[in-house]
Give the backbone structure.
Amino acid sequence: MTMKAAVLREVNKPLVIEQVAISKPGPREVLIRTAAAGVCHSDLHFQNGAYPYPLPAILGHESAGVVEQVGSEVRTVKVGDHVVTCLSAFCGHCEFCLTGHMSLCMSPETQRGEHQEARLTLPGGPVNQFLNLSSFAEYMLVHEHACTSIRKDMPLDRAALIGCAVTTGVGAVIHTSGVRPGETVAVIGCGGVGLSAINGAAIAGAGRIIAVDTLGSKLNLAKHFGATDVVNSKDGDAVAQVLEMTGGGVHHAFEAVGLKITAEQSFKMLRKGGTANIIGMIPVGVNIELHGADFLTERKIQGSVMGSNRFPVDMPRFVDFYLSGKLKLDDMISRRIKLEDVNEAMDELKRGELARSVIVFN
């Protein structure tokens, strides 16, 4: 079978819409008809070479769709199910999976081996599948542990956001950092992931949620997602403003930009005993500098990958949050576009003006 897909052939070049052949499902694989795919800043990191990836590849990793076919051993989903995908496919039996850290699983068995037929091919040879998914395409062929079934009354364009932005942002709050009711939170960067962290902090019962950005439009949006206070870092030292507002710093800080300076700011915003969480993708080769004496006050800094998720459990719950009005997804979608408009959406990411463009497939 062939399908239309957006292929990245060269770093720093536009994606090319091409016809790509997609294989049939193996025993534990699922063929999904893509309904919607968010255009995430992480896609841009791979397009511009900040994170090297073997090419050619089909980008896209934040998606939802409908199951079309399943392999003979698939037990978790069935034909006709509505599903959300997750790039952190898991095997279910390695040390990370068995100790509840499924998002850290790197088992090769969720992918096809080098001697097997490729899942995706062009006339010139195989196409690399991006982060277990490759969702800038009309179909996805994935391991069954790269997707989970959700309620059919959930709109699939909103469900796609759960596949990355929501799981990363909300998960960092409730899983990685364990925000408790009444605690103070700062979130640097109010794109899709940052807004999700703000929303997650509100759901977790944080007493004060401070949004930090350079764009007034994004700060206004942050208020809708649950921010109690906003700081425009163009108006002065963001760290000093947060320290003054909180009388000494926040319990939890979340960096959702992916820059050296904002990562360092997230640590400096902490009160004694506070925790900074780096959820933005800082480019390969960039080092973070911190003042060593600050560790004597038990301040902590840590990474969070995909919100430390247990996505087969988390994602259906996030769907319930949305349908009950707790999770604000409608306003996160800035534009709904066609696959052919993907390069324009990537350019918008460079300008940092929008929360999310979502590709909607017919």
Notes: The chain is about 25% helix and 25% strand. The first strand starts at residue 2 and ends at 8. The mean pLDDT is 96.
